[in-house]
């Protein structure tokens, strides 16, 4: 059910290699690495096992990146995963993915990250009882307007934020690895006992959540020059930077705090910086998390609007969303709708008073479902013979099968261990089915009318 694109289309060469690396790193390196390590240590007591788990997460990320490099080089499109799913499964599955991105995953992720931004900005510069929500809303509105103003402007800001974030996080890791400082004794939680394998599986949930976001590189493919060569370089370099940074930070946490103190910590990053630099360290960490949240927020806004654009481009009912603005070099209407929905979710989260946790529960199952389907599309599209001219991931079909198995486990875990938010997210996704049926029926009537 496709129609010709309305207006302008994305232009090659708008994004450079460094822009895409900055966007990919910014999507991944966020708040998780300052929180998740304590949850991993709560289930594993051996520092070697802890670091091995983070290394395994990096390896799975790299496997997924190879699969996406094949898909992106074969089918470069601003719609990214939407376009891959369209080619592999047809318009129905692609529509549900686009609907899920619009109503659940991307808008929910934007709201979740904005809550973190608001909480830490409020610590640095309080604005009263509703300050955190005001900061969250201002972050979404301001960065959305920046993206509407122009893709190149947004890319320049992203590059600056990503360089600052990686430099600061790497500096914090090196400082800990070279320091003789040790954390003050905490009321340590009891070390885990028994068979470590189930504990490793559960801990892997938090590791993979922290590595999440690299797949957004799929949305750059329409704006990259020489996508077959450049996309592989983007994914290889970005995943290497992320893996090295995460391993260094976790090694530093283990050196300064140790597994026992990490298990007892509610905010491992804050306790780590407190041990190194006292109150000054805690303030610096809050500032670093604000930078991380801004970096992730800008990248999420950037990529989210492109999936909405692809949905509008292919579905006549949503055609206004499928317009590409030549002056802004981006999908302005898609940005406006995305910002409006994210701001509405911020309002819901502010009322619930547990904004971040609510948004994570809301988005996780839908995210992992479609990531699994995208991984399997590598196998389907190879069988169809549509990737002959693309760069091909090695060891086929082992790579996509491993990636699909990991995604399936994460889907199961997100349904088993999350609360009512997951059911709400699944329900909103299901609402996309009648919308799709209505849209398909409307398109059929339009074609029939044109044929008369």
What brief labels describe this structure?
two-stranded parallel sheet, Amino acid/polyamine transporter I, single chain
Description:
The structure is a single chain. By secondary structure, the protein is mainly alpha-helical. The chain has a single domain, classed as Amino acid/polyamine transporter I, CATH 1.20.1740. Helices cover 75% and strands 1% of the residues. The protein is built from 16 helices and 2 strands. A two-stranded parallel sheet has the order 1-2. Helix 13 packs antiparallel against helix 14. It is globular, with a radius of gyration of 22 Å. The two termini are 19 Å apart. The relative contact order is 0.20. The N terminus is likely disordered.
The percent range for strand residues is: under 5%
Please state the overall shape, judged from the principal axes of the Cα atoms. Answer: globular
pLDDT < 50 stretches: 1-7
- The CATH topology is Amino acid/polyamine transporter I
Radius of gyration, in angstroms, nearest whole number: 22 Å
The CATH first-level class comes to: Mainly Alpha
What characterizes the major β-sheet? 2 strands, parallel
Spatial order of the strands forming the largest sheet: 1-2
- Alpha-beta content class: mainly alpha
* Mean of pLDDT: 87
CATH superfamily: Amino acid/polyamine transporter I
Helical content band: over 70%
Distance between the termini: 19 Å
How many domains would you count in the coordinates?
1
The ordered H/E elements are EHHHHHHHHHHHEHHHHH
Question: Counting H and I runs of at least 4 residues, what is the number of helices?
Answer: 16
Indicate the CATH architecture: Up-down Bundle
**How many distinct beta strands?**
2
């Amino acid at each position: 059910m496709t129609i010709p694109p309305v207006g302008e289309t994305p232009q090659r060469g708008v994004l450079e290699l460094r822009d895409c690396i900055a966007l990919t790193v910014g999507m991944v390196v966020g708040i998780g690495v300052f929180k998740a390590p304590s949850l991993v240590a709560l289930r594993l007591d051996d520092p070697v096992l802890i670091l091995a788990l983070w290394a395994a997460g990096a390896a799975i990320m790299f496997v997924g990146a190879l699969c996406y490099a094949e898909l992106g080089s074969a089918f470069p499109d601003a719609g990214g995963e939407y376009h891959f799913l369209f080619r592999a499964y047809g318009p129905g599955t692609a529509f549900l993915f686009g609907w899920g991105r619009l109503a659940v995953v991307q808008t929910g992720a934007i709201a979740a990250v904005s809550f973190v931004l608001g909480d830490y900005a409020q610590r640095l510069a309080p604005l009263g009882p509703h300050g955190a929500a005001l900061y969250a809303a201002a972050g979404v509105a301001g960065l959305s307007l920046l993206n509407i103003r122009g893709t190149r402007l947004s890319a320049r800001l992203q590059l600056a934020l990503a360089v600052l974030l990686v430099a600061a996080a790497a500096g914090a890791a090196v400082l800990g690895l070279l320091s003789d400082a040790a954390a003050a004794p905490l009321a340590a939680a009891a070390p885990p006992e028994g068979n470590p394998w189930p504990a490793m599986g559960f801990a892997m949930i938090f590791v993979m959540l922290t590595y999440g976001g690299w797949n957004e590189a799929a949305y750059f493919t329409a704006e990259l020059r020489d996508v077959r060569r450049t996309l592989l370089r983007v994914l290889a370099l970005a995943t290497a930077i992320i893996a090295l940074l995460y391993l260094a930070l976790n090694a530093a946490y283990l050196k300064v705090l140790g597994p026992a103190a990490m298990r007892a910590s509610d905010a491992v990053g804050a306790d780590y910086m407190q041990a190194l630099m006292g109150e000054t360290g805690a303030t610096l960490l809050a500032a670093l998390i604000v930078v991380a949240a801004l970096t992730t927020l800008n990248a999420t806004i950037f990529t989210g609007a492109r999936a909405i654009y692809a949905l509008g481009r292919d579905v006549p009912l949503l055609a206004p969303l499928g317009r590409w603005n030549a002056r802004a070099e981006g999908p302005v209407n898609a940005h406006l709708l995305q910002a409006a929905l994210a701001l509405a979710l911020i309002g819901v989260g502010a009322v619930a008073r547990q904004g971040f946790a609510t948004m994570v529960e809301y988005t996780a199952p839908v995210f992992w479902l479609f990531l699994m389907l995208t991984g399997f599309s590598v196998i389907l599209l190879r069988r169809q013979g549509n990737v002959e001219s693309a760069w091909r991931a090695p060891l086929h079909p082992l790579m996509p099968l491993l990636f699909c198995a990991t995604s399936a486990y994460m889907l199961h875990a997100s349904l088993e261990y999350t609360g009512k938010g997951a059911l709400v997210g699944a329900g909103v996704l299901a609402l996309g089915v009648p919308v799709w049926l209505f849209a398909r029926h409307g398109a059929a009537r339009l074609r029939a009318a044109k044929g008369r």
